[in-house]
Amino acid sequence: MPKVKTHKGTAKRIRKTGSGKLMARSTGQDHFNSRSTGKVTKNKRRDLNLGSTHQKLRSLIPYK
Fold first, then answer.
1. Which residue, 2, 20, 30, 41, is most buried by CB atoms nearer than 10 A?
2. In the chain, what are the domains?
3. Using CA atoms, how far apart are residues 30 and 46, in angstroms rounded to an integer?
């Protein structure tokens, strides 16, 4: 059986934790942040825990 290729775009954006959960960076951090509230800015610093709707992404990063 051939090797499964890793989807490089997904591998750069998503990582697996030790327990197998998927984590991604919060969106919208690059610019236009001065107009948003402090609460929103603080929440953008956190990484997101991807839920059950994103579990198809596991097959794109098999060796990570």
1. 41
2. 8-60 (4.10.410.60)
3. 14
* Burial category of 58 from C-beta neighbours within 10 Å (exposed 0-12, middle 13-18, buried 19 and up): middle
Do the beta carbons of residue 13 and residue 26 sit within 8 Å?
A: no
Buried/exposed 3-21: b ≥16 CB within 10 Å, e otherwise: eeeeeeebeeebeeeeeee
Write out the E strands in 1-64: 14-16, 22-25, 47-50
Please report where in the chains the tokens 């991604």 appear, as a residue.
Answer: 24
The Cα–Cα gap between 24 and 48 comes to 5
Q: What is the pLDDT of residues 1-54, one digit of tens each?
A: 888 899 999 999 999 989 889 999 988 888 888 899 999 999 999 898 998 888
